[in-house]
Specification:
The complex is a heterodimer of chains A (about 230) and B (about 500).
Chain A (H helix, E strand, L loop, with lengths): L1 E11 L2 E10 L3 E5 L6 H9 L6 E6 L2 E2 L10 E4 L11 H9 L8 H13 L15 H15 L3 E5 L7 H18 L2 E5 L3 H7 L2 E6 L2 E2 L3 E2 H6 L3 H7 L3
Parallel strand pairs in A: 2-10, 3-8, 3-9, 6-7, 7-8
Antiparallel strand pairs in A: 1-2, 1-4, 4-5, 9-10, 9-11
Helix pairs in contact in A: 2-3, 2-4, 3-4, 4-5
Chain B lengths: L4 H28 L8 H34 L5 H7 L8 H12 L4 H6 L12 H26 L2 H10 L3 H29 L3 H6 L8 H10 L4 H25 L21 H30 L7 H28 L2 H7 L1 H4 L2 H12 L9 H39 L3 H12 L1 H17 L3 H5 L7 H10 L3 H27 L5
Helix pairs in contact in B: 1-11, 1-13, 1-16, 2-6, 2-8, 2-12, 4-12, 6-8, 8-11, 10-11, 11-16, 12-22, 13-17, 13-19, 13-21, 14-17, 16-17, 17-18, 17-19, 19-22, 21-22
Classes of the chains: A alpha/beta (about 230), B mainly alpha (about 500).
Chain lengths: ~230, ~500
């Protein structure tokens, strides 16, 4: 049971990315690296937004390289635009649950309500994003991922706009849900503290080179030179 | 990327029908014109008149628009917002309504002649070249003003500040600041109006006519209606097509389609021209323009309001036809426009500008004739042609928003795996609601007021309201015509308002 990037070579414009690594199922992994190092490109390859030039993406041994984003066992939280602002939260979640028509039966509604209460948004189904605080919007986005119920979750700095306390709260919530559902989570973050708190293992991305997962604390206690330069003296 | 088979199919279907509507009638016209009977002197005269009136109309519209736009750009006064908004109104104003209004002011027994008669001034005649040009200026002065006003408002405020610091005089200001802007804007404005006036039909039909004031479009109509000379109509149609194509391509190079410009309510802060003479001149220009644009409309309302309750059954029947045609062409136009709201779709839609309605009408007539009586299909043909003619404007309105929606939400759509149906139903259409309402309103109003291809096919049982007004005028039943014109005005504005309002209600950020 693992997400396997098998000799991946991807190109985005003139930017090249190479990756060859395994992430065991159920792991929470942080992706660390400077801006422009290729973190988002890596997520795009895994999510299926960027087809690699060569190499394969495998999930539990099955080749998913040619599958569209929606057909992969993967859900993703973007930096922004995780929900449609003109729809209510319940309508958004109904679309996530049934992307063919956006309509759900009463069983589906019960599931949606359950997921909302899991992220602390009981009774928020009839609201729109504009009627919610930043923290509540993040929770609603997380509920969307939980409704999609895919085994792998990619987080592309979705909580970057929140204050430190709210961000910690959200990461704790994600960790809790991941434990309960046995999810594999990849978190892109700028903040080494996030990595320590959230992820047992971390991946370093530097100038398009992706390293295999290492123990987060060991990595951050004794970072390689490039990572040390990025993290600063602290 | 997830393939979108359904939306691609829809786009292909829309593109094919639009292309078919271009190629089919044009081919029919070309084949029919093969029996080239030679260009008669009257045809040369029509060609010459078409070019002369379009040149004069465009030149005068732009000429008057320059001081008017400048005055509007730099003066703040009560009613400025209303006046600027009204400059957009001629776009949805039925031509026949405006013509009736102009007749009430400039016609034989109009306000002007009645006012001047006591002073022994000889009676003004509105019919002929000057009447056609007058009506075209009435319609296009507002358009030119909006275009040039945009030019004024796009100028960086720093330029005026710098000019004020340097203490630049009137001449220096004109040479260094105003002239360069006008050089950029004016050729485009002139070209657009020239192209619009090239295919002028309704104005020439009502105010022109006779051998010396016949446009090509009108000549097509006459050879159909009076002589039933299809070959000649086709030859004329071919000439009209070539003319519009050349002019359209030139216009496209120098300008873009003017629809719904935003932000015209801004005022350019200026430190020059604060002297009394400038103020008075600006006030005179604004006053004259308001008088010129508003008096005819006021006369339509004034003359029609007493008659609107006494309208005959045939007028109401025509109104019913017009509403059906307007709704039908709105639906068809939106069905075309939604899948075609892309860059290449907009290029395809531009055919709607190059192809004049009458040429299309002749072509469809030729195609339909072997199978059915074209006159029985008059209303369907009219609705189709109207939808086609509105398409470029609708695409211009929808495309920016449609592309923004795709840019913003494609990743989320793909991440969720939304079906084409769910995407359209829950995301694309709801988010497009506002421009969709506006575009639908424009199409409905344009179609409601159209007096073009219907005149070609019309029989008394299948008249639309604009045609009915024209027929009443022709029968010198001016009171009934005035009442019907007011009804037409109300219906056009009402349809526009309803659709536009529908797009605004409940549309969220």
């Amino acid at each position: 049971m693992a997400l396997h990037l098998d000799h991946i070579h991807a190109r985005s414009g003139t930017f090249d990315l190479t990756a060859d690594l395994r992430i065991e199922a159920g792991q929470r992994v942080a992706i660390i690296g400077a801006s422009g190092s290729g973190k988002s490109t890596l997520l795009d390859v895994i999510a299926g937004f960027l087809p690699p030039v060569s190499g394969k993406v495998l999930w539990n041994g099955a080749d998913i390289t040619a599958k569209s984003p929606a057909d992969r066992p993967i859900s993703i939280l973007f930096q922004d635009t995780n929900l449609f602002p003109h729809l209510t939260i319940a309508q958004n979640l109904a679309l996530a649950l049934n992307p063919a028509t956006g309509r759900v039966r009463s069983g589906g509604m019960a599931l949606i309500e359950e997921r909302l209460s899991r992220v602390g948004l009981s009774g928020f189904g009839s609201r729109r994003l504009s009627e919610m605080s930043g923290g509540q919007q993040s929770r609603a986005a997380l509920a969307r991922v939980l409704v999609q119920a895919r085994p792998v979750v990619l987080l592309d700095e979705p909580f970057a706009a929140l204050g430190p306390a709210l961000k910690d709260e959200m990461l704790a919530l994600v960790a809790e849900a991941a434990e309960a559902e046995g999810l594999t989570v990849l978190l892109v973050s700028h903040d080494p503290k996030d990595a320590r708190r959230f992820a047992q293992q971390s991946i370093v991305v530097e100038a398009g080179q992706v390293s295999p997962p290492q123990d987060t604390n060991a990595l951050l206690d004794n970072p390689p030179p490039a990572l040390r330069a990025y993290l600063g003296a602290g | 990327m997830a393939p979108r088979p359904l939306s691609i199919t829809l786009a292909a279907l829309a593109a094919l029908t639009v292309a078919g509507l271009v190629i089919g009638p044009v081919t029919a016209v070309i084949l029919r014109a093969e029996a080239f009977s030679g260009f008669r002197p009257a045809d040369w005269q029509a060609l010459r008149f078409t070019l002369v009136q379009a040149t004069l109309s465009a030149a005068l519209s732009v000429l008057f628009a320059i001081p008017l736009a400048r005055a509007l750009a730099r003066r703040r006064f009560v009613g400025r917002g209303v006046l600027v908004a009204l400059l957009g109104a001629p776009f949805i104003l039925p031509v026949i309504v405006a013509v009736l209004g102009l007749l009430a002011v400039f016609g034989q027994s109009g306000l002007l002649n009645r006012g001047l008669a006591p002073f022994g001034v000889p009676e003004l005649q509105i019919y002929g070249l000057h009447g056609v040009v007058l009506a075209h200026v009435f319609f296009n002065l507002p358009l030119a003003t909006r275009l040039i006003l945009q030019g004024w408002l796009a100028m960086p405020a720093e330029q005026f500040r710098l000019a004020a610091t340097l203490g630049m005089g009137r001449r220096a200001m004109w040479r260094a600041v105003e002239l360069p802007m006008l050089r950029k804007i004016v050729p485009g404005a002139f070209a657009v109006i020239f192209v619009i006036c090239l295919s002028s039909f309704a104005v020439a039909l009502t105010l022109g006519g006779g051998p010396r004031a016949t446009t090509l479009e009108l000549a097509i109509y006459q050879s159909m209606r009076f002589d039933f000379d299809l070959a000649r109509a086709a030859v004329l149609g071919l000439v009209q097509l070539a003319l519009a194509l050349c002019a359209g391509l030139i216009a496209l190079r120098v300008t873009s389609l003017p629809v719904a410009a935003k932000g015209l309510d801004r005022i350019v802060p200026r430190w020059d021209r604060v002297d009394t003479l400038s103020r008075i001149l600006d006030a005179v220009w604004i006053g004259l323009a308001a008088l010129f644009l508003l008096t005819p409309l006021a006369m339509v309302v004034l003359n029609g309001v007493a008659e609107i309750t006494t309208l005959g059954a045939s007028v109401w029947q025509a109104a019913g036809h017009s509403i059906m045609v307007a709704l039908g062409s709105t639906l068809l136009c939106l069905l075309w426009a939604l899948p075609l709201a892309t860059r290449w779709g907009e290029w395809l839609g531009l055919a709607g500008i190059a192809l004049s309605p009458l040429v299309l009408g002749i072509g469809l007539f030729l195609i339909v004739r072997p199978f059915a009586n074209p006159f029985e299909l008059a209303l369907y043909v009219t609705a189709t042609v109207n939808a086609f003619v509105s398409l470029p404007f609708v695409l211009r309105i929808l495309r920016p928003e449609a592309e923004a929606i795709r840019a913003d939400y494609t990743r989320l759509r793909d991440a969720l795996g939304l079906s084409a149906w769910a995407w359209g139903r829950w995301v694309f259409l709801p988010r497009l609601k506002r421009p969709l309402g506006f575009a639908a309103g424009l199409t409905a109003a344009l179609s409601m007021g159209d007096l073009g291809v219907i005149a070609l096919f019309a029989d008394p049982d299948r008249a639309t309201l604009p045609l009915k007004v024209y027929q009443l005028m022709g029968a010198y039943r001016m009171e009934q015509a005035a009442g019907a014109a007011l009804l037409l005005l109300l219906l056009s504005l009402g349809l526009f308002w309803l659709f536009d309002r529908g797009g605004r209600v409940g549309s969220s950020p």
